[in-house]
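My main concern about presentation is that the manuscript never shows what a single data entry looks like. For the editor and my fellow referees, an illustration may be useful. For illustration, here is how one protein appears when written out as sequence plus structure tokens:

***
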Amino acid sequence: MNNISCLRCSIKGNIGLQCSLVLSGIKPSNLLIYSNHCEGCISEELKNTGAEHMKLYTGSKESVSIIFNREKLEKALLDEENREFIKQYGYEDFSVNSVIEKLAGRYTEFKEGRAEFPHEMGIVLGYPLEDVSGFIENNGKNYLYSGYWKVYKNAEEKIRLFKTYKDIKKYFVEQIENGKQIYQICFECRKFAEIAA
């Protein structure tokens, strides 16, 4: 296998592990952490999936991009309570691109040790506001359950949701290992999205 194929497999596996919930239509977005030399493969792997990506941070060896479903992220950003929450961090334009661009600046400042973690990222990633607020109020402690995020309310409901998330991720990675393309797996996983909706 040549180097390009190896890189492609590496980024494909990372996308499956880190972003299967977005690609399955459940979450509005997820972070993708990848080696800088893999960056050119991301767009190719996301072809025909309906997902988009924008870079949040460029490190010396690794970078972070956000993989997102524009329609679902727009819906999250239209929510009035979510908007009121992120306004306190200086957001005024709630269009998807504008929010991601501002988040990228704030996340870069955090990564470079110049600012605190941008907690509004939880809203962009589709975490419930009650849990994002709970995390801030409790400094990340006193949670009811810790899974894909720290849960502060409605634990039983979210434990069931996390089980669905785990099943999707497992299926996604298995199908990648079986040689399927990401866009093919996306459509197969729509049934999971219906279950979790």
Observations:
- Residues 1-8 have pLDDT under 50 and may be disordered.
- The CA atoms of residues 11 and 39 lie 8 Å apart.
- Residues 3-128 form one domain.
